[in-house]
Write a structure and sequence with these properties.
By secondary structure, the protein is of the alpha/beta class. The chain folds into 2 domains: about 1-205 and about 240-285, P-loop containing nucleotide triphosphate hydrolases (Rossmann fold, 3-Layer(aba) Sandwich); about 205-240, no CATH class. Helix content is about 45%, strand content about 15%. It has helices at about 15-30, 55-60, 60-70, 70-85, 85-95, 110-115, 120-130, 145-165, 175-180, 190, 195-205, 220-235, 250-265, 280-285; strands at about 1-10, 35, 55, 100-105, 130-140, 170-175, 245. A 7-stranded parallel sheet has the order 3-2-4-1-5-6-7, with helices on both faces. The longest helix is centred in the middle third of the chain and has 18 residues, at about 145-165. It is globular and about 60 Å long. The structure holds guanosine-5'-triphosphate and magnesium ion (MG). The site of guanosine-5'-triphosphate (GTP) has 15 residues, from helix 1 and helix 9. Magnesium ion binds near residues 15, 16 and 105. InterPro entries: Gpn, Gpn3, P-loop_NTPase. Small GTPase required for proper nuclear import of RNA polymerase II and III (RNAPII and RNAPIII). May act at an RNAP assembly step prior to nuclear import. Keywords: GTP-binding, Hydrolase, Nucleotide-binding.
């Protein structure tokens, strides 16, 4: 059985860093894994592990921009169109990996996740090839500094999840920036130490964060208030998004995230048809 984890999320969310740590973790657990670079704009030395498959070998953003006169975003769209038109290239590259685990590091343009058809097409293609695929969406912990920014992140995650139609895990990355800052507890909301309870309201998004007690302050524009109300309603009615915290400075944290990914993809079920014994109901309750 082959597996692929699509590592997605906005620019700078920590996708490449997570992909590398994930890879190290799998190798240390004696599991064979490979990195696939799907970012045609990635810079040469960005990878600790040489990607086994690299879209830049098919097409590079730089060439597209130079030769076709596109800007970076139009260029990216062109690269993905090109990839889908030359999907046999990918098939050939994938042919070499039987029984393997692919970590697919994606670009950071969120429109790629929310409304372009490329990633859904790619996922369908992987599925047709018998590769069991799941998506992870990284949102970085800085989004927790501003409630409105945070909810826009939640809505984007939701939209990506609905668009891609594969088993899905949302991750709050860079938690080290939130939890390991005890000296700054008086430093205002930017660097303030957060209580577990406060963090929990973000990991399992509490829509009342943006409309405390159901009403905004009197000088809020009523339209903005109405929009917030609508978002609160949406998230209350469809609580699709919750985040697993990821602190790469803690091996346990990475381990937990990897266990969730394995569980979501039913990793190893064909090989060993039994329940993963290190995970039970209680573990999930803890996390939520
Ligand atoms: N403190 C902290 N910084 C991190 C963490 N992960 C990544 N970073 C930093 O965040 C920046 C972006 O990380 P990348 O891994 O390149 O993010 P990305 O999502 O791949 O970025 P794009 O591919 O450009 O969209 C880098 O400066 C990293 O060093 C983390 O867990 N904690
Ligand atoms: Mg990257």
């Amino acid at each position: 059985m082959r597996y692929a984890v699509l590592v997605t999320g906005p620019a700078g969310a920590g996708k490449s860093t997570f992909s590398t740590s994930f890879m190290t973790h799998l190798r240390m657990s004696k599991r064979s894994a490979n990195i696939v670079n799907l970012d045609p704009a990635a810079t040469g030395d960005a990878f600790e592990y040489e990607p086994a498959i690299d879209i830049r070998e098919l097409i590079s953003l730089e060439d597209v921009m130079n030769e076709m006169g596109y800007g970076p975003n139009g260029g990216l769209v062109y690269c993905f169109e090109y990839l889908l038109q030359h999907i046999d290239w990918l098939d050939e590259e994938l042919g070499g990996f039987d029984d393997d685990y692919l970590i697919i590091d994606c670009p950071g343009q969120i429109e790629l996740y929310t409304h372009h058809p490329f990633l859904p097409s790619l996922v369908r293609h992987l599925t047709r090839m018998g590769i069991r695929t799941c998506g992870v969406y990284l949102l970085e912990s800085q989004f927790m500094e501003d409630k409105y920014k945070f909810f826009s992140g939640v809505l984007t995650a939701m939209s990506a999840m609905v668009n891609l139609e594969v088993p899905w895990i949302n991750i709050m990355s860079k938690m080290d920036l939130i939890t390991s800052n005890p000296d700054n507890s008086s430093g205002g909301p930017r660097n303030g130490r957060r209580t577990r309870k406060d963090i929990a309201r973000y990991l399992d998004p509490d829509p009342l964060l943006i409309v405390p007690l159901g009403r905004e302050s009197p000088n809020t524009n009523p339209r903005f208030h109405a929009l917030n109300q609508a978002i609160v309603q949406l998230i209350e009615d469809h609580p699709l998004v919750s985040f697993l915290p990821l602190d790469l400075t803690s091996p346990d944290s990475l381990e937990t995230v990897v266990s969730h990914i394995d569980f979501t993809m039913q990793y190893g079920e064909d090989e060993e048809p039994k329940e993963p014994h290190d995970m039970d109901e209680g573990d999930f309750a803890d996390m939520e």
